[in-house]
């Protein structure tokens, strides 16, 4: 993994694992995880999946009927599906993203703010000789508006996450694919002044990149792997952008409700932690549920089950949200003194094995 | 390390001539060697941020007696940039010279930026009408400083410390305010492709850049000299009458 600072030539760290330790972290496309999880679910009967169905409403069950000695469901959330089915739940887990209906139903407020940044994502094909070993490196360069990350995928593909201002993100999406590719290549190797200039032009990025690359050749850097390979093409229809936010629900649980993943928290993608945090949430919630079931306790009850999950996940995520938020602000500063200190900081990380290992463990999640 | 002087520091330094002398010595030795690379990067980046600036860097045009033909410029209509330039050369009694080649900067592009900066300097004089003696040069440096926010040209303001009291007052009251307001509000003049502007109307170019010409310094000096002479004569006559 290579991390460097666009404004300082000194701030550069390479995180390489020793061969005996195996890779630092695994990168996998979200669809692989989803496919894996669906396959695992099929083994876990009886689980019913309602495909292509959305949650239209959530309500509490009806008040108890005094004439019948039936179950009192008035504290159970009932989910109304678009297929007109209605499901009462002992525990409703909201894994429904930042604007999902579960948190709204539970009336749990969130804290945080929007970064005034968009993340531009795309799937790219790298320029690579046919016979060459596929390299699996992750690159991240901190530019003043936000980092640009190129994460290697198998077969010479890479995924792009480029955090930038909403205006620049919108501009990138208007470019022809040639000019989009030239802009990404420029952002991973040229000086900031060239990147900024290119981001103001409606056209001509390809020619600008060609000229500036002849003035600042990166051949050597590219050969040694210090900068990513140039991008050859962009997969059609893969360019998209998302607004970048910081959110933390004030609590992850309520009576018969648990929030996990982005429904509970949303983080700046600069450390690539969003999905990891969601996976850690589900792990923590699952272990709380297992414990409750083993003790014959009610899994929807906060005291007997959910508080354990909330206590474990909330603080851990809060720390991560804080660190990543500070990194965003640190790297968005252009003040030369801050840039110098940043260079020194990354330089120190590069020098001290212990610190570096700590960062590597964090990235691996 | 580089030295930079913010405008607010200058008056404070003026108060102390001892400090001024020491600082000036320091600058003489440090200025060229340490401030230059920084200054050159700033100037190059100013060019790289501008479409015309980038075109100049791609083409790398040179101003020599071949490319800027004085005889041809003299044939241009009144009030063109080219005519203003030769007019200024004549007024100041300067031969158009091709400046020394820049030698001590390794980076090819930066060396060119330095070359360009030197070669354009006379055009800045022509554009602002400022003369080449110290007072005019300092005012022009102050203008460039404000225009590009460069530390080295800022350093030249120390020459102010060497001026006579009347000149210094004029600088603070007239030329510095002119330099700062015009320098800040006008476009970066390093990005002018002079070779393409020679036949333009000079006032039109000034308006486009947002530059107003400062009070004519030679004229001011001449007027003051005459006033002084007249006052002197009056005094002499008075003395004679008393005798
Ligand atoms: C630009 C960008 C780059 C990122 N890069 C990384 C990265 O490199 N690594 C990483 O780990 N993370 C990254 N993330 C974060 C990651 O994408 C999220 O953290 C992760 O997707 C959260 O998963 P989730 O399942 O909690 O929520 P989501 O992915 O938002 O899923 C919520 C699901 O709920 C469904 N839903 C919502 N409402 C309803 C309803 N009413 N009825 C039915 N279904 C509903 C939605 O359709 C959706 O499928 C990035 C995020 C962004 C914006």
UniProtKB/TrEMBL annotation, chain A:
Record's signal peptide: none
Domain FAD-binding: 82-297
GO cellular component: mitochondrion
Cofactor(s) recorded in Swiss-Prot or TrEMBL: FAD
Keyword Flavoprotein belongs to the record: yes
GO MF: FAD binding; monooxygenase activity; oxidoreductase activity, acting on paired donors, with incorporation or reduction of molecular oxygen
Domain of life: Eukaryota
One GO BP annotation of this record: ubiquinone biosynthetic process
Keywords carried by this UniProt record: FAD, Flavoprotein, Monooxygenase, Oxidoreductase, Ubiquinone
Pfam families: FAD_binding_3
Keyword Flavoprotein: yes
Entries under InterPro entries matching the protein: FAD-bd (IPR002938), FAD/NAD-bd_sf (IPR036188), Ubi_Hdrlase_CS (IPR018168), UbiH/COQ6 (IPR010971), UbiH/COQ6_monooxygenase (IPR051205)
Family the UniProt entry places it in: Belongs to the UbiH/COQ6 family.
Annotated protein name in UniProt: Ubiquinone biosynthesis monooxygenase
Automatic annotation (TrEMBL), chain B:
Location in or out of the cell: Mitochondrion inner membrane
Pathway it works in: Cofactor biosynthesis; ubiquinone biosynthesis
Pfam families assigned to the protein according to its UniProt record, in alphabetical order: Coq4
Keyword Magnesium belongs to the record: no
MF (Gene Ontology): 4-hydroxy-3-methoxy-5-polyprenylbenzoate decarboxylase activity; zinc ion binding
Keyword Protein biosynthesis: no
HAMAP family the UniProt entry points to: Coq4 (MF_03111)
Name of the protein described by the UniProt record: 4-hydroxy-3-methoxy-5-polyprenylbenzoate decarboxylase
Family statement: Belongs to the COQ4 family.
Annotated segments matching region Disordered: 216-243
Coiled-coil segments: none
Catalytic activity annotation: a 4-hydroxy-3-methoxy-5-(all-trans-polyprenyl)benzoate + H(+) = a 2-methoxy-6-(all-trans-polyprenyl)phenol + CO2
Biological function: Lyase that catalyzes the C1-decarboxylation of 4-hydroxy-3-methoxy-5-(all-trans-polyprenyl)benzoic acid into 2-methoxy-6-(all-trans-polyprenyl)phenol during ubiquinone biosynthesis.
Membrane topology: Peripheral membrane protein
Domain of life: Eukaryota
Subunit structure: Component of a multi-subunit COQ enzyme complex, composed of at least COQ3, COQ4, COQ5, COQ6, COQ7 and COQ9.
């Amino acid at each position: 993994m290579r991390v460097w600072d666009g404004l300082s030539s000194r701030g550069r760290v390479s995180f390489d694992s020793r061969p005996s330790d195996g890779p630092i972290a695994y990168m996998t496309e979200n669809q692989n995880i989803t496919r894996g999880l669906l396959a695992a679910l099929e083994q876990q009967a009886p689980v019913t999946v309602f495909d292509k169905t959305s949650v239209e409403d959530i309500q509490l069950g009806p008040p108890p009927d005094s004439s019948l000695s039936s179950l009192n469901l008035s504290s159970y959330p009932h989910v109304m599906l678009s297929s007109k089915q209605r499901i009462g739940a002992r525990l409703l887990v909201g894994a429904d993203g930042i604007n999902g209906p579960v948190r709204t139903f539970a009336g749990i407020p969130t804290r945080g703010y929007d970064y005034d940044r968009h993340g531009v994502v795309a799937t790219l094909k790298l320029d690579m000789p046919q016979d060459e070993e596929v390299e699996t490196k992750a690159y991240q360069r901190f530019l003043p508006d936000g980092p640009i990350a190129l994460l290697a995928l198998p077969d010479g593909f890479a995924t792009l996450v480029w955090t930038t201002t909403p205006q620049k993100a919108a501009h990138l999406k208007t470019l022809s694919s040639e000019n989009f590719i030239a802009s990404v290549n420029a952002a991973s190797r040229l000086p900031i002044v060239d990147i900024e200039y290119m981001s103001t032009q409606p056209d001509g990025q390809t020619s600008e990149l060609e000229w500036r690359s002849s003035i600042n050749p990166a051949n050597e850097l590219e050969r040694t792997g210090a900068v990513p390979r140039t991008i050859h093409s962009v997969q059609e229809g893969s360019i998209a952008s998302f607004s970048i936010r910081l959110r933390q629900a004030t609590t992850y649980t309520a009576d018969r409700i648990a929030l996990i993943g982005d429904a509970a928290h949303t983080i700046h993608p600069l450390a690539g932690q969003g999905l990891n945090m969601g996976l850690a949430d589900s792990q923590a919630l699952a272990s709380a549920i297992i414990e409750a079931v083993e003790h014959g306790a009610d899994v929807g009850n906060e005291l007997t089950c959910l508080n354990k999950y909330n206590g474990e996940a909330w603080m851990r995520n809060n720390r991560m949200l804080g660190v990543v938020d500070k990194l965003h602000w640190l790297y968005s500063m252009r003040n030369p003194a801050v840039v110098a200190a940043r260079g020194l900081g990354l330089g120190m990380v590069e020098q001290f094995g212990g610190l570096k290992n700590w960062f590597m463990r964090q990235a691996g999640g | 390390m580089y030295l930079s002087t913010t405008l607010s520091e200058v008056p404070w330094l003026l108060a102390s001539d001892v400090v001024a002398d020491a600082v000036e010595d320091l600058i003489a030795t440090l200025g060229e060697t340490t401030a230059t690379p920084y200054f050159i990067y700033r100037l190059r980046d100013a060019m790289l941020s501008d479409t015309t600036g980038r075109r100049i860097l791609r083409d790398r045009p040179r101003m020599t007696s071949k490319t800027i033909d004085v005889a041809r410029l003299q044939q241009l209509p009144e009030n063109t940039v080219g005519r203003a330039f030769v007019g200024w050369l004549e007024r100041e009694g300067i031969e158009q010279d091709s400046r020394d080649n820049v030698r001590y900067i390794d980076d090819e592009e930066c060396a060119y930026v330095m070359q360009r900066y030197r070669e354009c300097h006379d055009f800045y004089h022509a554009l602002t009408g400022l003369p080449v003696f110290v007072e005019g040069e300092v005012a022009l440096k102050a203008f460039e400083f404000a225009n590009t926010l460069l530390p080295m040209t800022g350093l030249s303001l120390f020459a102010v410390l060497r001026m006579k009291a009347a000149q210094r007052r004029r600088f603070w009251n007239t030329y510095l305010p002119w330099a700062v307001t015009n320098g800040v509000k006008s476009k970066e003049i390093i990005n002018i492709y002079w070779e393409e502007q020679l036949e333009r109307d000079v006032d039109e170019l000034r308006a486009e850049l947002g530059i107003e010409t400062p009070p004519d310094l030679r004229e001011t000096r001449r007027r003051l000299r005459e006033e002084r002479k007249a006052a002197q004569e009056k005094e002499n006559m008075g003395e004679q009458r008393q005798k």
